[in-house]
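Email to the structure team, subject: Cytochrome d ubiquinol oxidase subunit I model.

Hi all, the expression group asked for a predicted structure before they design truncation constructs. Nothing fancy, just the tokens so they can compare against earlier work. One-line instruction: predict Cytochrome d ubiquinol oxidase subunit I, return tokens.
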Amino acid sequence: MLSSFDPVVLARIQFAFTVSFHFVFPAFSIGLASYLAVLNGMYLRTKNEAYLRLFKFWVKIFAIAFAMGVVSGITMSYQFGTNWSKFSDIAGPVLGPLMAYEVLTAFFLEAGFLGIMLFGRERVGDKLHMFACIMVAFGTALSATWILSVNSWMHTPAGYAVAENGQFIPTDWLAVIFNPSFPYRLAHTLTAAYLTTAFIVGGVGAWHLLKGRQENPGVKTMFSMAMWMAAVVAPLQIVLGDMHGLNTLEHQPQKVMAMEGHYESHPDGAPLYLFGIPDDEDQELKYAVGIPKLSSLILHHDLNAPMAGLDTIPDDEQPPVRIVFWSFRVMVGLGFAMLGVGAFSLWCRWKKQLYTNKWLHRAALLMSPSGLVAVIAGWITTEVGRQPYTVYGQLRTVDSVSPLAAPAVGSSLMAFVVIYFFVFGAGVFYILRLMGHPPQRGEEGVTSDGGPIRTAGITPASEEVARRTPKRPATGGGPLLGPAE
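Reply from the structure team: attached below.
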């Protein structure tokens, strides 16, 4: 049955499936690592137990999400050798060192300090533990930086030459790393990660507030911090997205044409299509609903600026418009919905209703997975919009795939689907269970007087105290409780 499928399409579906699973975990853990560093710093500064409770609450969730991100990333990377060996051979001299730098400088940094962050509070002291939290947060961001440099080079290749054997050879590493789309993609993606975490944290806080836990200081603190982040970062993300779009228009115009649904050119101002049904065969956006000339205003800051359409692009170089058109609208729509929740939270804060307004809590809970959906939609827009190339303008997708038969790719794809849903489904279920319990005074590692207790067992000092302390006689088969006890 699988032999009737196109192996290139199956290889693309497999990579899309595995990278979609992988992407949601770093998108969450990047922001959560920074949030944990902030919580730990606030606790050390104020000695407010609420911050320590939240740190202990979220660090367990971070550890699980981090582990699932690592495992899913390793699985994904193996596909470069199995399904995309030609791409690895041709682009390897440029991309291989960058991915090695990611492992050496970022992943080792995260893993090296992760143990201290998780288990070292009572062993290494507050300063070194705080440093470890900062290094884990820095490592997650640095890891994303290297990966996004790799991905950006595939969109806007620079600083290379083509050898006689067809391989891409680096000629200027700075130009390779800081390629034209890299700064915009890095800023847009990292901000998306922080916004994703803010809405997940806010959704968890909203859940507990809807359960009537307004008196829990940890719940109130997490919800307030998340809503501040949403109110500040959501408008920033829209600005960065606009800048990234302008950069894309300069270097990948047909991707923007597909995003906008512009099959035809507009010599005197292009409309902004809100909805429509793209038809690649007829090269037409059917049932289009748009605002005249607004696209020219947004992309060129001029109502009458001419804009070329896909009628200027050969058919074999056009991306699949329907996928790009709708994934872009999902991303943008969720972005403006996040902006609305952030603005609503500011109004509720001003009215002193932040912890009592049920409509805000319902909206925050509903929007809690919105960041994850938005980053996947944005990734689909970016990657499908680059088609039919893996290295834009230089290496086509059909020339990048391994010489595999469709049954081999299809069988491994089905195995991935089954295993991923069982393994990662169990992990996500456990994370949701942890989120369902509010941070309490009994949270492991937190004492009632606001300070940490030892959770690593008996220390040498306590053993010495126990050895020197005389034992009291027992009566009645139990301990004798004196007045001091």
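The two ends are 76 Å apart (CA to CA). The first strand starts at residue 160 and ends at 162. Ping us if the truncation boundaries need rechecking.
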